[in-house]
Structures are given as structure tokens and as C-alpha cells.
Amino acid sequence: MMVIERFYFSAGGHIKTIFLKKTLDKSIKIEGFALKMMTFFKEAFQVNRKSYPERVRSALFHAIKKTAANLDACVKVPGKDFSRKRKLSLQTMLLMLIGMGGGSLSKELYDWFGYTPSTATASAFVQQRNKIRSKAVEMIFNEFVALAMPTMTFRGYRLFAVDGSDLRLPSDPTNDFSLIRNAEGQKQYNLAHLNAMFDLMSKAYVDVTMQGKKGMNEHKALISMIDRSNILGKVIVLMDRGYESFNNIAHLQEKKWNFIIRAKESYGMISNLQLPNSEEFDVDTTLTLTRRQTKETLALLSAYPERYRWIQPHTTFDYIAPKDSAMYDLRFRVVRFRISGGCYETVYTNLDSETFPIGTIKELYRLRSGIETSFRELIAFFKIKAHIHMNETTLNSQKAKHSERRVGSRSEEHPMTLP
After folding, report:
1. I want to staple 371 with a disulfide (CB 3.0 to 4.6 A). Which of 141, 161, 263, 328 is the partner?
2. Please, what is the Cα angle at 88 between 93 and 102, to 5 degrees?
3. What was the pLDDT predicted at 23?
4. 3-class SS of residue 217
5. How far apart are CA 275 and CA 17, in angstroms?
6. Interval 232-249: pLDDT, tens
7. How far apart are CA 398 and CA 375, in angstroms?
């Protein structure tokens, strides 16, 4: 008897499917679900692993087991949900939610329980699933990444690229989070926006935030990923020009993380800065921010426009409260370099100029494209899943219609009559 469990994970920047196989001795007759699961976990949680896929699998199961042990943090009603011993425990539910394939719920349940009489019902699965907080999946993700992904660096620094991308989801008119309603007569569709922090050296996502396409805000997503990260040590975050913001730089500065942000060339922070009239340059800059418009601050804003900036009341800046007289300094370099032919790029960075001269900054910024490559692979994976989902829905619909036709024809041949 062979049982195949399916799990999906990202390794080396590629989406892979790992089939975990267990061959049981045919001479031993195994009855019931308990013995099967006991054998499964015994193999899954072995510590001594040799190959990389096995180490990743072990890390995944360890992350699920550790998360399930923190019951109150994973359920909606602590002290009540999953308090009784049932077939579908929290650990089993988390394993199934991550490992289930693309079949119908009933088929996946039969596959999981080995087509035994003890197979849980679809109704029971849905009831148990509704008790789990989304926080549980986040906890598994964080624990899994910390355990499974090797820490690789660039001159001792971890390189994180941050970017966002839209993900087309399978059609679901009941999902208000992602549903896009078009004008009357046009087809509705589901679209989400993925904000990700990607380790360019280890080729793995270290954090993600999902937003509905409606009302998405990449700046808020970035700040949430920065503030909640427990990653210590030397870090360089690379971002495109869409992330240029006083508030974003301030959060990175307070986190003591380094950054390289592509600058907007003709407006934004670069305006009023005193920069050399040359093709390439490297200038240290300090911007002092204020929310007040007193005589003193107005005089400074007028006399030194390259240094002082007034933040408008509607502009988000978390380190100066409205009407607060405090000032806040942002310190960074403005670096301009040639990328190809007659094309030039300007970036902001707080990296040391001696350790990271223009040539190294250029090399680092070029590495940022790694997150775009990972997005293309991820989007391709979602398209495949959506296509499979659509095909299975169509196939099931056709099967249902075929069954109805067969039942209808047999009813005409052998009409049923009440006694």
C-alpha cells in the first residue's frame, strides 16, 4: 500500500511539488487511521536528514507541530475550539490545509484517510476549518522560513527586495476581499495584491502581506513587514521608486536597516536638493522634516529649501504627531550611476560610502530584479492552479449533467410509482 501526501513550498526561487512517499509492508494488515498517522509522524519528524528536500520537509512538519501546540493563538475561541479529541485535530487540519491537492473536498478527505470507514465528512472539515485563525498559517510560514531557508549574505549583509504584484484568483463572487465589480454587463473577477519581502541570496520569501486590489497600499504593507520583523543583524532592503517616502525611510532608519531606493527623477524627494550637474555623483544629504509653520520654521524653509521640508497635515509620517513642534532628520546618500548606454539611475541609500562605493551600489541594485523573476514564477503557478480549478469545475459540472441525463433516461424507461 502506498500513500502519497502533497506539499508545496518555495526553494531556490522555484515552486516545486514534493511527493512524500511511504511504503508499508504488504504482509502487515493496517486497520484504522490512528496507526497510519502514527507511522506518518514518526517518519516526518526524524531529525537526522541528509538531502535538502528532506530537511525542508522536516522543517515544515516541525513548524506545523510547533504552531498546533500553541492552540490558543491559532483558534478563534480559545478554551473551546479544538478542546475535544476528534478525528480532525488542529494539527491534522493544518497538515491537510497545506498538503491538500486540487481535487474536491470529499476526494481529498478520502485520499487522506485512505478510503477507510473512519473518513471525516466534508461538513466536519468545514466546521473545523472555520475555527482556525489566519494567524496560524502566518505562524507556520515564519517558523518554516526560519528553519528551512539557509542564511546567505552579501559581504555579511542579508539582501531583501520588496515589491508588489497582482494575483488573479479563481472566480468567487462571494469573496468581497478580492472581488472586482465591473460595469453592468461586464464579467466580474477576483484580484489580490501580493506584497513580498524576498531574500535575494537565499531565494526565499521572508515575509508577505496580501491585500485586496481595492484599497491596496504598498507603503502600509512595507511598514508592517519592517516593524514586525524579528530579523537582527546587517540587512539591506532594495526597493523601486514606488516606495520613495519620508515615512518609509524613517521606519528603516529606526529599524537600523540599510536601504537602496530608486529615486523619482523629476519630482518627489529629489526636488530642491543641491546636486552636482554631472552624469554620476555621490552626495551625502540630510533632510529635516517638520509639521509646524511657525515664523522660525517658515524662515528655515525659505532660507534652506534643500535641507528643510514641511510635511502637510494629510501626509503620513509616524514620527511627528500633528501640531508637534519636533523635527526629524533623515540621513542618506544620493547616488547616480550609469546603467547602460546613455541611461542613468538615481538611488537613495544609507550605506557607508567607503564600504559601498558607486560601483557596489550599482551591483546591488541590479540584484533587485531577482524578486521580479520570483514573481513571474509565482504568478505562473497561480495561473496553473486557477486553470486546473476551472477545468475541474467544468468537468464536475459536465459529470453532473451527464448523470442527470442518465437518471432521466432511466426514469422514463422505468418510471417510479408511489405505493
Report:
1. 161
2. 45
3. 37
4. coil
5. 51
6. 889 999 999 999 999 999
7. 34
| Tens digits of residue pLDDT in 123-181 | 999 999 999 998 999 899 989 988 887 788 999 999 999 999 888 888 888 888 889 88
Count of beta carbons in the 10 Å neighbourhood of residue 214: 13
360 grid coordinates:
557596489
- Distance between CA atoms of residues 89 and 157, nearest Å: 41
Give the whole-angstrom CA distance, residue 415 versus residue 11.
Answer: 59
Nearest to 73 by CA among 20, 128, 134: 134
The pLDDT value recorded for residue 307 is 94
Residue 119 cell numbers, joined: 473518513
**What's the chain's length in residues?**
419
The structure's pTM equals 0.73
User: Is residue 233 within 8 Å of 337, Cβ to Cβ?
Assistant: no
Residue among 218, 82, 84 at smallest CA distance from 163: 218
**Residue 57 and residue 45: Cα distance in Å, rounded?**
9
Determine phi and psi for 402, rounding to 5 degrees. Answer: -65, -40
**Coil, strand or helix: which one is 404?**
helix
Collapsing DSSP states into helix, strand and coil, what is residue 416?
A: coil
Beta carbons within 8 Å of 306's beta carbon, 6+ residues apart: 272, 273, 274
Cα(306)–Cα(56) distance, rounded to whole angstroms? 51
Distance CA(73)–CA(67), nearest Å, equals: 9
* CA separation for the pair 210, 196 (Å, rounded): 8
Q: For 225-232, which contacts have Cβ atoms below 8 Å and span 24 or more sequence positions?
A: 225/162, 225/195, 225/197, 226/251, 226/252, 226/255, 226/257, 227/251, 227/255, 229/197, 229/255, 231/158, 231/206
Nearest to 137 by CA among 75, 88, 83: 75
Q: Which residue has the cell 478563534?
A: 76
What are the b/e assignments for 362-380, b being 16+ CB within 10 Å? Answer: bebbebbebbeebbeebee
CA gap 32, 150 in Å, rounded: 39
